[in-house]
Fold each of these.
Amino acid sequence: MRKILFTLAVLASLSIADAFAQEREVAIVAHRGFWNCGEAGAKNSIASIEQAQKNDFWGTEFDVNMTKDGVLLVFHDRKINGRYIENTRAKDLEYYRLSNGESIPTIDEYLEQALKSPETMLVYELKSHTTRKVETKAVKASIKKLKEFGLFDPQRVMFIAFSRHVCNEFARLAPGFTIQYLERDANPDDLIKSGINGIDIRYTVLKHNRKMIERARANGMSINTWTVNKEEDIRKMVELGVDQITTDNPLLVRQVLHQMGVKEKKAR
């Protein structure tokens, strides 16, 4: 009788777990676009966002820096060949080529490509700049550009940043949008008071900080994690209950979700 009861208990727990897995949805965010494929070949390139769109991932993440003359460039690093982007005019960076031969995309060029796939979420990372004044200018320039392209829509764009000031400014100037803070010192109870309604934390931190996840959930916040590229880490993040996984290997995340019986979230 004990064996029968034990077996029934195990089966019941498995059925509950299966039901939970089927209800779960996890979104895949291609880190700097789907660059890790032969068709793209360069991070933050037009080809990389195009491949993210073609492969039907929920979102594509990209990095934005502002030049001395206020031009927004889709580029990760603060410096190019030793020159700070923030202190350099856009035309003085036109010579630079990405690894696939493309020039550095302007935000205009990037958003032009974004318009070709209304379903793909734009995960817009505005990089930290030297002063709050410059960061506020970059936030306002970003919002202006999104409005020009008809993309200033919380169903199309979410914002992430390492700078708390940048996050605060997006919360102030773009209410209703998902705004995720990237730093490991994230305190969900504090962030939510400023209107910052999400976290995007490195997976190595989240693995050992269930309390952060619990507090984020208690505050109704979205939970993203970066940059998760190995199967064991992907599985761990899914088990911890994140909403989005940012990765250089989006096809692997898709495969793992399928193996785990967890639904891959689509944009719309």
Amino acid sequence: MINKRLVLASSSPRRVALLKSLGLHFDIVPHTIEEYIPGDALPGELAMQLAYVKAEDVAKKEKNAIIIAADTVVLHGKDILGKPKDIRDAKRILSMLSNSDHDVVSGVCIMDTPSKRKVLRISRTQIKMKLISEEEIVAYIKSGEPMDKAGAYAIQGEGRKFVKHINGSLSNVVGLPLELVQEMLNDFTKN
């Protein structure tokens, strides 16, 4: 039983819809940090660190709440792929993912204020993409859908047509691993 206000540290429509699907009542207080990907970062650590920084940012404004923050990165080989910078970058990312495997890694931070007690965890989902033609990539980019998505595709949208196989949490790929969030909230409220 959660006896404090729940706050989602994101205005992402995908994260909001996913969290609502758990039947939770929460407020939306977007973080104000600039997301970044340092060159030497390990994907799980990076996603957890960014989730933590987002939670910390919102915790400064929310004095009596449980903050839920998340960050998602796409890992292709040793390359960490964030959101495309522009159309050219979206094309590069989608061409890279075509006919290959990649991992979607999300870091989740749940933090209590004012105690700053926190739980950090990661979720990893493996994706196999089909061969995507250059024409398909161009048409998909014209739709605008890939421009604000890590890995330049939305599995919950038109991007699902490029996915051949998924192993793991679908909600993780959309942007918030619900199974993990529910487990973390349960553990968090027990202690």
Amino acid sequence: MLAVIKKELKSYFFSPIGYVVIGIFLLCFSVFFYLTVLPTGSVDLSVLYYYTALYGLIIIVPILTMRTFAEERKNGTEQLLLTSPTGMFKIVLGKLFAALLVIIITLLISFIFFFIVMCFGKPNLVTTLVAILGFILVSVAALSFGIFASSLTENQVIAGVITVAFLIISLFITDISNIFAGFALMNYYTSFIQGVISIENIISLLLFSVAFLSLTIIVMQRRKLVK
């Protein structure tokens, strides 16, 4: 799995993708810092992370995930994955962790806003860390869906559009019916921005992630049988 992570990280940072993603994410942080923190003089950065997750992930997740399997299929390297001694479980997790690492790097850089606020007040470190934990869990769930979407097609654009569509629909899906409440990822984030670690929300996000990672493995295993 480590080899897969290294390969994916190289593809991110030996090309503009990784730097574009980090740049867009930091731009989102900067905009929402200006809009939510500075006008109120608040030392609570939870809202900053909430709005960045709310709008930033819709842009970032498709960029990170649309190429994960679609590019392999388009370039003809998918067969190498299917016949690799590394199990499909490890391949899928490796791609997930590599994409997640890019987001974690951005979150570490985002601590600059915490230090900026420290110059004017005393932000709560624990509350900020809980908000970041929630951010990571929501990111994992969104990335899992994006990787699943990429496994369905060889067209990166289609994979990206499917992911964007899902993330946007998930914001309003509870308005359609509470039956689909499990797909409303941001609803699970509300407790984290209040500084509360909800075991129920953690389990829900992890189950969502496991479900779509499992579907990705099933899709790829079926392609292996077909091949």
